[in-house]
Amino acid sequence: MMKCLYLVSVVFHVAAGCELVKKTAVEEVTVFTGESVVLPCVCTDIQNKPQGLKWAFYRNNHAQEIYPKQTGHYRNRVKLVSNNSPGNLSLLISHLTEEDQGNYRCFVQADSRDLRLSVKGRRKISTHWRKTDTKPPSKKPQSKTTHSPPASSSTTLEQERT
Ligand SMILES: *[C@@H]1O[C@H](CO)[C@@H](O)[C@H](O)[C@H]1NC(C)=O
Question: Is residue 150 part of a domain?
Answer without folding.
Answer: no
